[in-house]
């Protein structure tokens, strides 16, 4: 079976691979694939041997090459130190009331729909609006950003590069235009702040800024959208969990962490072997791609007892859904805040939420993320 099959439920295959072929080469994606928790953690943490910086493709698709996601130390540390200024606990907490108001407005709109779709009506516009507002993207342009981010996320599985390059070019040109506008007329937004930020006398270049903005829009949106959508999948599959959560909302942090582990929004992350590397009894040649499967690692029975059980009371949940080591997700506190406020409002206003029995869910067709494009739901309210 290929890594690109069973996108709606790859977990039985992950289990088989952990037991029988924990490291193998997948021809369909041209990559070594690593499934066990310890091995995945090693690949994600050991940046000296497994680089985040991909080889130069030279095809115009290098927008993210200057982002933290695709750089190694020392450059990674410099970039993270600069952009970390925008993600301090104080900065995130200042977004609380705005996110809370947005959550309830989106719930109003979704509950007014005769055929609500949780992804379309709630899980997509919530993080998109929050991040777009942080960057200063006008409301009327947010649909463009959703289109661009969806195409970029799925481009990892598109062999026809000529179809994707224009998307990157349009996206990059728009971001460059925003940077120029803020350079000439600063506003109260993240791009203006990053243009002023300096550490050790160094400022971000335009390509650094474009890489960061693109990363924030793509990774920040998709991760939170999938986290919320995957939580609703759990609630639909196991209604007792939602009922218990309504009875005890203090369990919201547990549910968010268990959702991150059980249905990890980021399914896998790529690395490249600097030199020939040995993982277990497999030798990976220098320069070859390695896919660290976070979704499989977070179901590894050697790390998580009863790994295939969604345990709302799980203790010591050391999942790696937000990554590990120097590349631990900078936006994790924002995703947690959005998830917490979303669930708090849902618990107050929604008595039950289940996926429509006849719904044909469409998985996101990429090896990188785990989620669905649509989630038609049946809702009973407590209002």
Write up what this structure looks like.
It is a single chain. The protein has 383 residues and is an alpha+beta fold. The chain contains 15 helices and nine strands. Strands 1-2-7-4-3 form a five-stranded mixed β-sheet, with helices on one face. It has a two-stranded antiparallel sheet with strand order 5-6. The longest helix is centred in the middle third of the chain and has 32 residues, at 206-237. The protein is globular. Belongs to the cytochrome P450 family.
Which shape, going by the Cα principal axes? globular
Structural class: alpha+beta
Helical proportion? 40-55%
User: How many individual helices?
Assistant: 15
Question: What string, H for helix and E for strand, traces the elements in order?
Answer: HEEHEHHHHHHHHHHHEEEEHHEE
- Spatial strand order of the main sheet: 1-2-7-4-3
The count of DSSP E runs of length 2 or more, i.e. the number of strands, is 9
> What's the main sheet like?
5 strands, mixed
Q: Into which percentage range does the β-strand content fall?
A: 5-15%
Report the uncertain regions. none
Separation of the first and last Cα atoms = 47 Å
Arithmetic mean of pLDDT = 89
Q: What does the radius of gyration come to?
A: 20 Å
Family: Belongs to the cytochrome P450 family.
Keywords: Heme, Iron, Metal-binding, Monooxygenase, Oxidoreductase
Protein name: Cytochrome P450 YjiB
InterPro entries: Cyt_P450, Cyt_P450_B, Cyt_P450_CS, Cyt_P450_sf
